[in-house]
Design brief:
The structure holds 3 protein chains of 3 kinds.
Chain A: H1 13-17, E1 33-39, E2 45-51, H2 53-56, E3 61-65, E4 96-97, E5 103-109, H3 112-121, E6 123-128, E7 165-173, H4 176-181, E8 185-193, E9 205-210, E10 216-220, H5 225-236, E11 243-246, H6 263-273, E12 277-280, H7 283-288, E13 295-304, E14 310-322, H8 328-340, E15 348-357, H9 371-388, H10 393-400, E16 407-408, E17 414-415, H11 421-432, H12 434-437, E18 440-442, E19 448-457, E20 468-474, E21 480-484, H13 493-504, E22 512-515, H14 533-560, E23 568-569, E24 573-575, E25 582-584, H15 585-591, E26 601-606, E27 615-624, E28 631-641, H16 648-667, E29 695-702, H17 725-737, H18 748-758
Helix pairs in contact in A: 5-6, 8-9, 9-10, 9-17, 13-14, 16-17
Chain B: E1 3-8, H1 13-20, E2 26-27, E3 40-45, E4 55-58, E5 61-65, H2 70-75, H3 77-83, H4 86-91, H5 97-100, H6 105-111, H7 117-123, E6 127-131, E7 135-138, H8 139-144, E8 152-158, E9 163-169, E10 179-186, E11 189-195, E12 202-208, H9 213-223, H10 234-254
Helix pairs in contact in B: 9-10
Chain C: E1 2-7, E2 10-15, H1 22-28, E3 47-50, E4 53-56, E5 69-71, H2 77-90, H3 99-112, H4 118-124, H5 136-152
Parallel strand pairs in C: 1-5
Antiparallel strand pairs in C: 1-2, 3-4, 3-5
Classes of the chains: A alpha+beta, B alpha+beta, C alpha+beta.
């Protein structure tokens, strides 16, 4: 033992910091065709006529494809386990354009210059239709986003394309109305969150070619290589057996790359032309036709008694799928399950939701996956209840938070096996010096310092759905190859899994070579999303190591001529405690590759019937300038219970990065559309993610519980950490100003003008 | 990204001027903002061969070549000696040092963007621009002129005892500003400049420093016109104009002339 | 147009179009550490040195670099590994896509500023965006690297 819970450097770190060419665009062959998309200028239109003749005359232009050239089977680009809950509502190119930027034509050319020239010369006659842009008006609106006959939901998610409905559902435990009737206080508030772009530094990109066997090989920056294989098979109408997907290093994902965004275009060109092809999304394309967070409007009703005991919560969420339903039916569920379940003493709870189509950018998966929106609403509403009852917002949480040993009725009745939320709260208060700083104080320069708090939970994988398999081979040098199908996107899972394997196999981490992901060679894994990798794939590693240890022991014993029961394996050798005879791991490895022996390997799969939540408390200290309304988050304290911390460095950086993204969502990231539905935030100039000048201190601490179903007691961390900044900052702003902001982002303008109004200015 | 057929690095200002007369040609300056358009140019004119990349101080004035970078202005000791932290305050929010190492004074002024920190700042001082064709023009007049095909060669900045302070509000610290403000005083005579309204910066002269910050704030709110865009409403900009003007004036009052 | 540039100490002569960004020219010359992250000069991923000063190679035309010296991370491998080790020890490189641009700026700062404080470091690096890390681990690594460098001198 020794690697788990220690600060191990990522195995690929030195390669990355010295700038090695390891990303998709570094691997493209020089003769690959450049693929570019002609995109719709209109939010809602039909292609009446399209003339590609002039474009095809440009030297270097190889092909121009339109809706008439692509397969006619609808599919979803959501990277989910089959049958996907996301409706099959897309084509590679469609005659009907459902949002600004929807692809109209695919150009393949020998050079970027030729491709761009061709885009300018394609003549399209559009029948411009009135767009449906306001998602609160979408349900049963006469404008239909998906009027097509072949719209096809595979799962019973409540979809009805004749009503612009992507999904609808509800659940209730207890009788909410009956409990509300008995409450001293029932508070109802509506909260609004916008779409957010993941804004990973590497935009969407794919490189494809036919390999020496004539199979389609797709090198792509993806979180879900095996899902990409299936989705491409659906989209291109070719067997999965004809497709190989390779994931090189990825320049960030955060959920964006849990959807097929660029793969289908490059792959289609390669299939049609037989040539290598590549598509690299511009930042503008990534920003305006990516796979952002779902915009939501949430109505929370909370019933409590005078002492601050929360008795019932009723949450209604309306979610904007945008033009396509990717991840629509699934993100919405988390808005309920992962917000309501923070409160353990509820006598009743209800969650109702609708997901609607509009002519805005199709949404997707973004870290937090609906939980972020739900937690903003519920945590903000709890803070308003606390204010109404004149209670410290920490106190109301201490009275009501979920605790270890409880069953969580709003979380599929799963048991709360591991939970240190109470310790997280105590530690956060201590680190923030909450008792002294709450609620606010005025500085000499007129600014106000104030603090705010929120809690968060997430899951660890999708219970009963996610599956991870792992293979470990013993090589002839006495080293191991760890083959995984999960996708390290910078998070360090390749290293974390190697840490676990090294501890399970009692060896040095340098003895473990990690390899992922190539769908021809890697064992099946649903992919890295839903906070699954450490918990689900980690457990598969533990099981695989167990099996391999037994095989090594048996092989060693055979070489020593004894039965395995008499021998022991200590990681370096198999030996006989009785007489000290031994055979080294190297010798066992070498024996496996000669004569009639065989190389040792083990493979195990893991799936979990439950999805144990990690928990955390986040506290923001802000500096608010009441004249300009500007808010600086000067200090953020995050205390996290992710079970056993496998790699404290990586878990810390995950937390710091998630908090930073959450701060961006809370204060800056503000997706806007023109009145005709063109997205205005088409660049890093117009979509402002935090720079290092915008962030103060972020302090991270861990209060670990032990999750009995997780590897070494671990749970997830990746998504959990994005959820607290928005409600905690809103709380701090309320404590500074007395004004409650219920819509994100909380803008300096609204604060300044709100204060001016209040003060009669 | 723009496209171009030719690139020229003229050896004389006259040559640069002649080249720039042709429609479709353009001066590239640092190239930072230009790239964001999708224009198609014929010839790109690079002024880097004209020795316009330095800051000279003589006879009570600074002469700054058009190719002086924002980073040079921010680090120049002469400018700092005369104007204190003014140019650091002006430049520090502009994207990052890599950008400011290339972005030029000439490009910043010639573009006359509404959000220009440089234009706001220099309008608070007493400046002229030297144009290859039209000769010397006071900066306030240049700021209002329509775009033409002249070539901005130099900026002359008078060191006449005028002091200035710079303030701006941004959504993130390196965003383009929601509002910019510079206030300057020559004796008691106070000038307030407001930019990113979101229209071009312009100046209000004839105020009195002795009247204090609140009077300046009121004047700024009343005198200037404001509009709305993605970043802010006209109402917020008007509010901020008062806040920033008061702050700048307060800073001028704090430092003894 | 024909240009001659020195890339990481080696002279290169080549024919380029007048509108070719230096970024694409350098990638074409095999300097694949240079990354593109945006089209608006906002991200800092493509930072290289032009005559020793950090600039955005997306905003410089290859023709403008004629006769000048360019340095990319390929030319600073030893220093990249030295600073990079501190970054790796914090887990701060994460996806790594912004790392070359960040490191080019950090190494320029180490030459330009003597013993910068926390605020100076943040200001100097403000033009380098990162979406993974929240910047804290980068700051820790930079401070440790600068302290180590001071001791080495």
């Amino acid at each position: 033992m020794g690697y788990v819970n220690s600060r191990i450097r990522k195995k690929d770190a030195m390669g990355l910091v010295t700038g090695k060419p390891v990303y998709t665009s570094d691997l493209i062959s020089k003769n690959a065709l450049v693929v570019k998309l002609l995109r719709s200028p209109h939010a809602h239109a039909l292609v009446e006529r399209i003339d590609t003749k002039a474009a095809l005359l440009i030297p270097g232009v190889v092909a121009v494809y339109t809706w008439e050239d692509v397969p006619r089977s609808r599919f979803t680009t959501a990277g989910q386990t089959y049958p996907e809950p996301s409706p099959y509502d897309r084509l590679i190119l469609d005659r009907r354009l459902r949002c600004a930027g929807d692809p109209v034509a695919i150009v393949a050319a020998e050079s970027q210059e030729a491709a761009l020239k061709a885009l300018r010369l394609i003549k399209v006659d559009y029948q411009v239709l009135e767009p449906l842009l306001d998602f609160t008006q979408a349900l049963d609106n006469p404008i239909l986003v998906h009027p097509e006959e072949d719209f096809r939901p595979l799962c019973p998610v409540g979809a009805d394309n004749r009503r612009n409905l992507c999904s609808a559902s509800s659940f209730e435990t207890g009788d909410v109305e009956e409990v509300f009737a008995k409450c001293d206080l029932v508070l109802e508030r509506t909260y609004r969150t916008k779409a957010n772009n993941q804004a990973m530094m590497e935009t969407f990109r794919t490189y494809s070619y036919l390999d020496e066997y004539g199979r389609l090989t797709v090198v792509s920056s993806t979180q879900v290589p095996f899902h990409v294989r299936r989705i491409l098979s659906n989209a291109l109408e070719i067997p999965k057996a004809q497709i190989r997907v390779i994931k090189p290093r990825i320049g960030g994902g955060f959920g964006a790359k849990q959807s097929v965004v660029s793969e289908q275009f490059s792959a289609f060109v390669t299939l049609k032309t037989g040539r290598p092809a590549c598509i690299i999304y511009t930042r503008e394309e990534s920003m305006t036709n990516g796979s952002p967070r779902h915009q939501m409007e949430l109505r929370a009703r909370i019933g409590a008694d005078r002492e601050g005991l929360i008795r019932a919560i009723d949450l209604y969420a309306l979610s904007n799928a945008g033009a396509y339903g990717d991840h629509g039916p699934t993100t919405i569920g988390l808005a309920g399950h992962k917000s309501l379940s923070l409160y353990g003493g509820l006598e009743a709870a209800r969650f109702t939701c609708d997901v609607v189509y509009t002519n805005t950018m199709g949404a997707g998966a973004y870290r937090g996956y609906g939980a972020t929106q739900g937690i903003f609403a519920v945590e903000s509403a709890v803070n308003e209840v606390a204010a109404a009852l004149n209670l410290d917002p920490c106190t109301i949480r201490e009275k009501n938070m979920v605790a270890q040993g409880q069953t969580m009725p709003t979380y599929y009745n799963e048991p709360c096996n591991s939970c240190a939320l109470d310790r997280c709260m105590a530690r956060a208060k201590e680190l923030m010096d909450w008792e002294r700083k709450y609620p606010a104080r005025k500085l000499d320069n007129g600014h106000i310092r104030a603090v705010g708090v929120a809690m968060s939970m997430q899951g660890s994988g999708i219970s009963g759905v996610d599956i991870a398999s792992v293979e470990i081979r013993l090589g002839d040098g006495g080293f191991y190859t760890l083959l995984v199908g999960c996708t390290d996107m910078g998070t360090g899972c390749d290293t974390i899994l190697a840490q676990m394997a090294a501890d399970c196999l009692d060896c040095s981490i340098d003895q473990i070579a990690v390899r992922g992901v190539d769908t021809d060679q890697s064992p099946y894994d649903t992919g890295s999303y839903a906070s699954s990798t450490t918990y689900v794939t980690g457990m598969a590693v533990v099981k695989t190591c167990q099996e391999l240890r037994e095989k090594i022991l048996a092989a060693g014993a055979r070489l020593l001529g004894v039965s395995p029961e008499r021998a022991e394996f200590d990681g370096g050798r198999v030996f006989l405690p009785a007489d000290g005879r031994e055979v080294s791991l190297t010798a066992i490895g070498e024996a496996g590759v000669m004569g009639d022996s065989r190389a040792l390997s083990a493979t195990q799969a893991h799936s979990s019937p439950i999805s144990p939540p990690p928990f955390m408390v986040g506290m923001a200290e802000i500096d608010l300038d009441p004249d300009t309304g500007e808010v600086d988050v000067v200090d953020y304290v995050a205390v996290v219970d992710c079970g056993t911390v496998v790699n404290p460095n990586l878990a810390t950086v995950q937390t710091e990065g998630g908090i930073a993204q959450g701060i961006g969502m809370a204060l800056y990231e503000d997706i806007q559309y023109s009145p005709q539905g063109q997205p205005r935030n088409n660049s890093f100039l117009q979509y402002k993610i935090p720079t290092r000048l915008d962030l103060g201190k972020i302090r991270v601490a861990f209060e670990s519980s032990y999750e009995p179903t997780g590897p070494f007691g671990a749970k997830s961390i990746g998504e959990l950490v994005i959820n607290t900044p928005a409600p905690a900052i809103a709380n701090a702003v309320a404590n500074a100003t007395g004004l409650f902001f219920r819509e994100l982002p909380i803008k300096a303008e609204d604060i300044a003008l709100g204060l001016a109004r209040r003060d009669g200015g | 990204m723009f496209t171009a057929q030719e690139y020229a690095r003229p050896a004389t200002l006259a040559e640069a001027y002649a080249l720039n007369q042709r429609r479709g040609n353009t001066i590239i300056g640092g190239g930072g903002w230009l790239r964001m358009g999708r224009q198609r140019f014929h010839t790109l004119i690079d002024l880097s061969g004209l020795g316009l990349d330095n800051i000279k101080e003589e006879d009570g004035r600074f002469t700054l070549g058009a190719m002086v970078t924002l980073r040079q202005m921010e680090l120049d000791r002469g400018l700092a000696g005369a104007f204190g932290p003014l140019f650091v305050d002006m430049a520090k929010h502009i994207v990052g040092i890599q950008f400011r190492n290339r972005a030029t004074l000439g490009g910043s002024l010639a573009a006359r963007f509404g959000f220009s920190d440089v234009l706001t700042c220099l309008l608070a001082l007493d400046c002229e621009v030297e144009l290859a064709g039209a000769g010397t023009v006071p900066l306030p007049r240049y700021a209002q002129m329509p775009y033409d095909r002249d070539v901005l060669a130099r900026v002359i900045l008078h060191k006449n005892g005028r002091r200035a302070a710079y303030e701006s509000t941004l959504i993130t610290h390196t965003d383009i500003p929601v509002l910019t403000c510079a206030a300057s005083a020559l004796g008691d005579s106070l000038r307030v400049v407001i930019g990113a309204r979101p229209g071009r910066a312009s100046a209000l002269d004839g105020l009195s420093l002795a009247d204090g910050p609140e009077r300046a704030a009121q004047a700024a709110r009343e005198y200037f016109s404001f509009g709305s865009n993605m970043r802010a409403s006209a109402q917020y900009r008007r509010h901020l104009a008062g806040v920033l003007a008061a702050r700048a004036v307060r800073r001028l009052q704090e430092v003894n002339p | 147009m024909n240009i001659t540039v020195t890339i990481n100490g080696t002279r290169h002569t080549g024919e380029v179009l007048p509108d070719l960004p230096l970024l694409d020219f350098l990638r074409g010359q095999g300097c694949l550490s240079v990354k593109r992250g945006c089209e608006t000069s906002n991200c800092g991923l493509c930072t290289v040195w032009l005559d020793g000063a950090p600039v955005l190679s997306c905003g410089v035309l290859a023709v403008q670099a004629d006769g000048r010296a360019i340095t990319t991370l390929e030319g600073l491998q030893e220093e990249a590994a030295q600073f990079g080790a501190f970054l790796a020890d914090e887990g701060g490189e994460q996806c790594g896509f912004c790392a070359p641009g960040l490191i080019m700026t950090v190494l320029a700062m180490a030459r330009e500023l003597d013993d910068p404080g926390e605020d100076e470091i943040r200001a100097y690096l403000a033009g380098n965006l990162c979406r993974c890390s929240g910047y804290q681990s980068q700051l820790r690594a930079i401070q440790k690297y600068l302290a180590w460098r001071k001791e080495e001198r």
